[in-house]
Each structure stands twice: as structure tokens, then as C-alpha cells.
Amino acid sequence: MSIGDHDVVGIEGGAPESAARCRPLRRDAERNRQVILRVAAEVFAERGLDAGFDEIARRAGVGVGTVYRRFPDRDDLVAALFEQRAAEVVASAERLARGEDAWASLCTFIEELAALQVADRGLRQVIAEAATSAERFAEVHERLGGALRGMVERAQAAGDLRPDVTAEDIPVLSLLVSSLSCGGQDPVLWRRYLGVVLDGLRAHRPAATPLAVGPLDDQRLHQVMIALSQRRQR
Question: Which of 127, 35, 147 is closest to 83 using CA atoms?
Fold first, then answer.
């Protein structure tokens, strides 16, 4: 065996060892990415998208340079969060679409999506910003639309859902209902209007569903209108 042969064997034998040394770095990078995404979601939920990378890095226990290496700018971070949350919403819709009672599944989806947006201050902003990408919106719409259309069509066939409602109406209704949390100032008010919306979706109803939250008095109505007006101006 020549020296050249030894060199070749050494290179071939050393490649797996070199690759093995690289794998932990890739795992570390992915772990850092997931930690940053989790912490960013928490920070944005509390403070909205105005929160800075310094705060995210501090709470994630990494240097701010690490955050910028994973996500060069805020748009990259928002896009990654949107994709992550969109995957969760699609998975929830697909799970519910397999339920036997399509009407109950549809109601649960509207409620769960609204509750998620009420609890997460930054989620609505993430959706609004990321949805400006036509390509990204179309991809999520295609994945979510299939599950929602299945629930809508089965609920209509069972005579539970009014026939003029489409799958496209469902996320819009959920978004409208969640907006009535007034930016978190009244975290349960939206449930009152959820009951109104769900009753309005029914094809036939023997009696009105009891509303989860009592009616507004004059003072509370004033507070709600101020909060909603301020939200529209942002």
C-alpha cells in the first residue's frame, strides 16, 4: 500500500468522525433557534411586536448576536413565528375535522382560535404582518381550507350550519370575535359575542344559547368603545 493509499484511507476514515463533530453544532444551532422562537413568542405575547431583540436574547439566555445569526431582521423572526403558529392551527383544524360531530368541531375551532389570539397579544400582529405575503398566505389558506371545508360541508349536510356560510368565513369570524378582548383590557368579553356568532351560524335553533358573559352597562360600554377605537388607530 503506497503513501498515497494511506492518505486516501485516512481521508475516508476521518470523514465520518469530522461529520460527527459537526452534528452537535447543528443540533446546538437548531436548539438555539427553537429557544429563541419560544421566547420571542412569549415576549411578543406580552409586549407586542415592538419588543426588541435585546429583550428576547436576555430572556433566551443567548447573546444578541446569536439572535441576529438565526434571524437577521425582525421580518425573518415574524415569518418563522407565523409558520410555526400556522402549523399549530392547521394541525388543530385537521384534528377537529376528524371528529364525528362537524358542528361541534367547527364551534370548537372558532373558540380555540379566538382564545389563542386573545391570550397572545403578538399573534394578531404576527398574522397581520406575515399575511401581507401573498405566497405565504396562499400556502396556509390551502392547508387550512381543506380541513375547514370538510367541517363546513358536513355540518351543512347535517342541517346544523346555515347553507350560505363558507370555509373562508370561519377564520374571519374568529378574528372578529377575538378583537373584542379590547387589547386584553377585558379578557372575557369576547365570549359573550362568541355565543352570538355561533347562534347566528346555526341553520335552525330551538332556543337562544345562554351567553357566557353578562350584558354591558353604560360605563363598561364606554370603556369597550374607547379601547376598540384606540386599537384601530394603532
Answer: 127
Backbone angles phi, psi at 132, to 5 degrees: -70, -15
Provide the residue-wise pLDDT of the chain in tens; the chain has 234 residues.
433 343 333 333 444 444 444 444 577 888 889 999 999 988 988 887 888 899 999 999 999 999 999 999 888 998 898 888 888 999 999 999 999 999 999 999 999 999 988 887 677 777 776 666 777 778 888 889 899 999 999 999 999 999 999 999 998 899 889 888 755 567 788 999 999 999 999 998 777 778 788 877 778 777 777 766 555 445
Q: How many CA atoms lie within 13 Å of 172's alpha carbon, on the beta-carbon side?
A: 5
Q: For domain 73-234, give the CATH number.
A: 1.10.357.10
DSSP 139-160: HHHHHHHHHHHHHHHHHHHTT-
Closest C-alpha to 193, from 166, 170, 216, 171: 216
Question: Can you tell me whether residue 202 is helix, strand or coil?
Answer: strand
Domain with CATH 1.10.357.10 in the chain: 73-234
Q: Are 190 and 200 in contact (CB under 8 A)?
A: no
Are the C-beta atoms of residues 87 and 128 closer than 8 Å to each other? no
